[in-house]
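ATP-binding protein (Mesobaculum littorinae), 384 aa
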Amino acid sequence: MQMRRCTNRFALTRSGWDTCRRATICSMTRSPLLRPRTHLGSQTATIAGRDPSVERDARPANAGGSIMGNDLITRAAQRVAELKGYFVDHERFVPLAEGFSILAEKRLVDIQTGRISEAQGLALSGHSGAGKSAAITHLLAQEGQRLADRGYGDSTIISLRVPSPATLKFVGQMLLRALGYPIGADRHAWYIWDLVQHHLKERRVLFVHLDEAQDLASRGTKHELDSVTSMLKTLMTDPEWPVGIILSGTTELEDILNHDHQLARRMKTVRFESLSPAAYSDDILDLLEKYCELAKLEPEEDVLELSHGERVVHAAANQFGIAIVLILDAIEDAYLQGQETLSRHNFIRAYHRRTSCDAEFNPFVVPDFMRIDARQVFSRENRT
């Protein structure tokens, strides 16, 4: 049996498991039934050939046919939920995890020695669908448990999602609720944030995480940016109990940090870049094979060609998180069809379910898939 090439970029980790129990892609061996992957070329024509089965797959699954049974849908949902319980440990996660560990250890040393030092923070930026929320959720759960195991309590990290649109007053109220101290809306913002600082100290919170942090300054006015950056710096420089700030959000988050150089210098930054189809297609196929192994589905040859990996990356708008969703959607379709294999037809149907696009705008159907804007839905060749 031929050993596969290992890229070391992705590994699937069961959520909550120790890293030594990772189910790494690199340990897999290639099945003798699988042929070597081919680059774009002759194999692409088999995908591009708009045969009747492709046209059928690009229509709704129940068009002109019977509706799937509830039992089948329930079983498929349960099996996909199990797959979603795995975290994809990727190369971009390493600087994020290392950055947080360094901040946490510095803060713990200060506590142990009785020193009061300004806290630092960590900012994670990337386009929508890059996988930021999954990465930060996994990291904070992992680190929160580690801190709890070391005797620092179970509330060392407070995490909340910033609403849109947001006001500093409302965010302060949300933080107080998360700290177990709900307060009415009739209080002034300055009073609310004084209470936030007090309860952060009382609960011995080390870090506050704000997801979708770009919405802290959604209007982008100078006054709003000044207020947001001032509030974040106040928490980090509290003379009695400084708190580290973790921010995650889209690339607009970078504007908040760049607005105030004092805040920016206190933050470590990580950016999840977009994927390149040419550079990451083989890695995405590695991930697809691992998911197939966990899903107990045999991948067919047409989903193991390099061209298919490029199609997945493009269909995901070059975003890592969306690529994972597409793979899981295709696996779900295979379950709903009662299959024991995963094929390109599952990706065709899964993409159609997500977008309701005509076959001409389905990246898993047409030969010139790079022309398709994968962020568009309801695309039609002839709109009426």
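The longest strand covers residues 121-126. The radius of gyration is 24 Å. ok done for today
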